Amino acid sequence: MASSNGGGVLSSGNFGEVRVETVTKVYEKEDKCQTVLQDCSLYVNRGKLTVLMGPSGCGKTVLVNLIAGYEKPTSGHIYIDDVPVTGPGPDRLVVFQETALFPWMTVYSNVIFGCRVQGLNKGELKERAELILRKVGLYEFRDKYPSQLSGGMQRRAELARAMINDPKIMILDEPFRGLDAMTRQLMQEFYVALFEEVGRTNFFITHEIDEAIFLADRLVIMTFQPGKVKTEIEVDLPRPRDFRMLALPRFMEIREQAIELLYEEAAKAFAAGSKTAYDLVGALVARKGICKRTK
Amino acid sequence: MATIKQKTQGAISIRNVTKIYDPEGVHVVAMQDCSFEIAAGEFAVIVGPSGCGKTTLLNAIAGFDNITSGEIYLDGELISSPQKQIKPAADRMVVFQNGALFPWKTVIENIIYGPVVQGRMKRSEAIEIAREMMNRVGLNEIEDKYPEELSSGIQRRVEILRALINHPKVVMLDEPFRGLDTVAKTVMHEFLMDIFCAAPRTMFFITHDLDEAIFLGNKVVIMTTRPAQIKKIVHVDLPWPREHHLLGSEKYLELKKEVLEAVHEEARKAFEAGEREMA
Amino acid sequence: MKKFFNVRVLRGFISIVIFVVLWQFVVLVKIPYLENLPYPKEVAVDGINAVGSKTYWFDWGISLSRIFIGFIAAQLIGIPLGLAMGISRVFKGFTFPVFEMLRPIPPIAWIPLAILFWPTRELSIYFLVFIGAFFIIVINVLQGVSNISVSLKWAASSLGARPKDIFWKIMVPGSLPSIVTGMTVGMGVTWNVLIAAEMIAGQGGLGRMTWEAYTNHNIPFIVVGMVSIGVAGYLCSTLIRWLSEKAMPWKKRF
Which of A58, A90, B88, C145 is least surrounded by CB atoms within 10 angstroms? Predict the structure, then answer.
């Protein structure tokens, strides 16, 4: 794993804030209209790790795409430091669910890609690339191809690729999905330590509650479709975060609170006929149920 | 403290089990000299880094694969050793991660499959019993649906019912709730809890989710990285039936802390070993 | 490991021996409909003589040159065309309908038209080989471009790539696997087309050679011709495979 190799400049400290103002996104397919986001307003604080959670289909990924500039909202505005978003750019870098490392380039080439297309030459980049690669513990693997790396290592390479460009904002859309539970936990620790060291504005999407609470300064919970912000919870656990905090009473308290809220939204999803929410029928009936407990 | 009705069948004894994969080739020592006991009707949860250890035991008990040395006993009878390997049968049922419901059969057809195919029950009898089971857990409305029409949470529960209708001595579940979101998981836990309390039988439950492990289990067996051995066994003496408010209690948090530390240590070791392998 | 190698090779060897023995038996015993087959020995003798003769290798050269010219022309025109169609919806809108209309026509069906319209026989043969590989490569390149995950393009945009960067650094390398598939399949088809064309209308070449063996009633030599064609085709496919491994180092099995 990355050693605290400290020193060196990993960032200029110029971090951004995101303001999403009453954004609505409607998709039109044939003659059906699907309103994924409705009057959604959200604020991502400068220098904080904001985590977004919500039931499937609530538009979390759509929100990511809008902030990143890959899609445009149907109505409403998104501002980065008061500048409206018009398209993608290196001030907002995204780490996706599925790896977006370029399979035909080595780790090193992937990491320096952004800088290269922006005009820096290889020589200038060498020192900076080396520093970042050592930071994520991939220096020995710099000449390998993505297919030769494990899932966790691929994610770290993507973090490096983003970080080397010193973006104002980092957006991560369920980046640890698909990793096995152990690797996932270690990646969470690694990532949160990185965040705590650099202090960049991070916007993190997940549907794993423990992950969300472990990482977040603030937890934002979205409603079921059409999506908008339901509640925000301040996660006042101390930093630096440590895996042992998963056993703190305060952690469990926040967890219960979040589960209740998610349960509420899942119930609404069920009422709307969502397949995944059908589970609740079983739960609700069983709770009233006939199951006998023996003494 | 409420206890569960005691069971007399399904005691598993694992003694000095070693498993080496591909002994003449790559020679992977998945498990080395592993020993522990599971009492009849006990809910044992196995946690530990990904690797071959937990699955090795499951495969040996179920009868899918054998072991290199050591012995495994079920109710005093030898079921697995280098010389003898019992075949899979309905007294040791397995519920897998990825769902193995027959897609071409309805829910009720799936559930009655075992007893009918084994000739233990007539179709009509089996259907009645299946209906009763489904009723008890609130799933009766879906009896004529096909698996793909249902959410994964419901599919898992149907699979568990399909296993249970065979009255197995041991039920083995290999990360059955993996991939479900937190809300769905709490529903699953309550379901399993209800079933287990109503008719306790030995459970061999593999998971990575530590809250799940402590919430469901009598004991949590923590395994080391390869070659797998028993790192620690944590006895969970929380009251039955387990209810969700327990998750905030002091006792629970103490147990969680203990398990967390042990598992985290092994996870780190596994990770570092894996990195070395890749270089 | 050693044991494993021997058993596998032994099994393969035995199966070939059995095949040859059966062949000999079938001809010897004059099984109905198969009694005109040549004996394995005759084929072997003719084969050895051929390998020693200049005209045989001359025919090889002619066939190979036809394959290379037609095939390479198809790649040089087809790959850029496929890329253009994949990237620009407008361009695709104009070109794809005509392309799709012509694609189902089997290359061999082009033979009469090709002979009529091209000034020389050689040119018509090059054209036929071209047709064989062309449609395949274009369709594969199209597929390849659409297979490039949108998140790769998005990641590149975010990182500051401009359209020309995206084309050269994302689209082209990203379509390479499909280009290779197109070449591999195309190579097989071109051999098919070439042999048919040579049999019908060619001068020289392995197909012509095999056909002349037939008209001259030199039956063992027909089999020699067939085997030669098979070997030539195999060598070309191996070349493509080798080139693809060099071009796509990231696809190696590690």
Answer: B88
Cβ of B138 within 8 Å of Cβ of A209? The answer is no
Q: Is B151 in contact with A1 (Cβ distance < 8 A)? A: no
Residue A16 has φ and ψ, to the nearest 5°, of -105, 175
What does the pLDDT look like over C104-123, one tens digit per residue?
Answer: 999 999 999 998 999 998 99
Closest residue of B to A147, CA-based?
B278
A touches which chains (3+ CB pairs under 8 A)?
Answer: B, C
Give one DSSP letter per residue of A143-196, joined into a string: TS-GGGS-HHHHHHHHHHHHHTT--SEEEEESTTTTS-HHHHHHHHHHHHHHHH
Token couple for B206: 């593999």
Rounded-to-integer distance, Cα B235 and Cα B220, Å? 6
- Give the fold, CATH level 3, of C41-252: MetI-like fold (1.10.3720)
End-to-end CA distance of chain B: 53
- Domain limits for position B142: 98-167
Chain C residues near residue A113 by CB distance under 8 angstroms: 156, 159, 161, 169
Within a domain: A172: yes
Count of the separate structural domains present in chain A = 2
A186 CB near a chain B CB, below 8 Å?
A: yes
Taking alpha carbons only, the member of A129, A180, A179 closest to residue A155 is A179
Residue B2 lies in a domain: no
Is A178 in the C-facing interface, judged by CB distances under 8 Å?
no
pTM: 0.81
Per-residue pLDDT tens over the stretch A12-49? 888 999 999 999 999 888 888 888 899 999 999 999 99
- Number of A/C CB contacts below 8 angstroms equals 69
For C40, left (φ over 0), alpha (ψ -120 to 50), or beta? alpha
Is A17 exposed, middle or buried, given 0-12, 13-18 or 19+ CB atoms closer than 10 A?
Answer: middle
As for the ipTM of the complex, it is: 0.81
| Chains in contact with chain B (at least 3 beta-carbon pairs closer than 8 A) | A
Distance CA B42, CA B203 (A): 6
